[in-house]
Amino acid sequence: MTAPAGRSRALRWFSTLSMTVVLTLPLGTPEVGAAPQPPDPGRERIASERAEAREKAERVGQLANKLAVAESRLHDLSVRVETKREATNKARVDLRRARRAYQRARQAVAASAERAEAAAGRVEHHRKRLDAFVAGSYKQGRRIGSLPSFLNAESPQEMLERASLLDVISRKQLDVLDDLRRARTRKANVDSVARQAAQRAEAKRVAAERARAAAESAKDAAVALQKTQRARADELRKEKAHLAAELERARANVGELRQQRRRHQQWVADRRAQEQDATAQDTPANEAPGAARAPSTAESSGADTTNSARAPSAVNTVVQRARSQLGVTYAWGGGNAHGPTKGVHDGGVADAHGDYRKIGFDCSGLMVYAFSGVGIDLPHYSGYQYRAGERVPLSQMRRGDMLFWQDGGNVHHVALYVGNGRMIEAPYSGAHVRVTSVRYDGIAPYAVRML
């Protein structure tokens, strides 16, 4: 019994010495065969990189807003150019008409001159007839129609014949005089009408020439402005694309640093678990199993952890449902809780794009579909959606909030904010559901929070 007892005491002493050595090893000392410690970028570096990425995202958003304004201005100028071009076309048509009217007036003047020559010929003819009549009267040596013309008659019959002749001659004389007066009047009237027509035609031609020149000048000025604005928009697009590429690289860098941080934290957690396992081997049995667990801070405070965990999940559901419709065509009046539907007639732009024949979403229809996934039944009208939930200032907007745009106080568009200055929207007829930067031009002062 003595020898075995000695060997037992020696084994107990050796075991105690071995445990002491293990417990006195530094916590950071890696075991043989353990994975090497991953690099730790640190919170400060990640925060710095994240802040830089956020700054670039804000700059991208600002450029996107500037680009949206520039493109809106470009659209307005394009409409203006089209208007000026149509005005130029009108001026050209008016000028051609005025030139034709002027030519017709000149022809009328020429014809009037011919008629005036004819009238002058008739006047001369009647003048000669009158001269001949007067000369014939004087050749008788007395005044025609005087008393001696009747007294020299040899019989009553001759007297009657002379009276009849004198009556005819008198009427002829009056007819000649009337014809002369009418011919002169017609000539004067024809000349006057022709001259007035020519003057009016010339005035219209001159005015049309001026209108055409003014229209051409206005059109050229509008085209020049359009070219300048298009160049500015192209410059903003290039700058935005360059900065967006930098933003993507910055986000990728932040993501890589986060992965490094998580790997390091997991490595530290594994090391601590190994150390705790080693310590637990020497822990008295009455302290390990069945020991009371101290309540966590959240549990002791009585906070509703179920609701706090549910809200992010609901927001993710809303955002993912909206994202699932990316690329779906815009259809005015389209969309419900179950997905895209056929558009409706609007009697205007939507009809011109054939929205009533398409299956898709309009802006408020997309919101109806997104929020129906979490049991929220929104009305299919952006104006009512603006009053559907809690209004928060734009400076406090967060992922899952709805953003609205107004014109004269009337809501006309809605989109879903997805964070990092981005939003999902069904923009307009002819486009598709897309992710784009938040536009601040015309945006309503409040976001609406449903979750």
UniProtKB/TrEMBL annotation:
Region (Disordered): 29-52, 255-317
PROSITE patterns: NLPC_P60
Signal peptide annotation: 1-34
Segments forming domain NlpC/P60: 312-451
Domain of life the protein comes from: Bacteria
GO biological process: proteolysis
Record's keyword terms, sorted: Hydrolase, Protease, Signal, Thiol protease
Entry coiled-coil feature ranges: none
Entry's family note: Belongs to the peptidase C40 family.
Name listed for the protein in its UniProt record: Cell wall-associated NlpC family hydrolase
